[in-house]
Amino acid sequence: MPEISDLEPRHPYRIQADGLYVTLTSENGDVQVKPDYKHEERFHEQIWTLEPAIGGTFGFRGTNSKFLGVNNYGHVGASVDIIREWERFSFERTENGYYFVVYWRDSKHYLFKPPNEEYLEATPHIGDATPMTIEDLL
């Protein structure tokens, strides 16, 4: 797992949560966590390009050219062309990976994968956050 300081702009990565990969499942920006597609035709759906944002934050652009972010309901998707506050991520390191941090509705939230579900959402509670890893594809 690379260090956050080693992440390179415009570089392809995969994001893993709870043993599954953050996957763009439709052109309209639906995102789910799915098994490894590395040896499948749909592998491109799991590739995210890192884009620098302000204040040491990052955005992740999917193959639909949209940015990963949090919608009005707190669910994670990829449906906007620009990095706004709720598409800017920072990270907090844990022994198991990173917590993805996003400022949504004027407060700090963490990405969370509910048990037995295939989606990610934002939670204000660090105790609910899902540790995530970033896989360098180059």
From TrEMBL:
Gene3D superfamilies: 2.80.10.50. This is Ricin B lectin domain-containing protein.
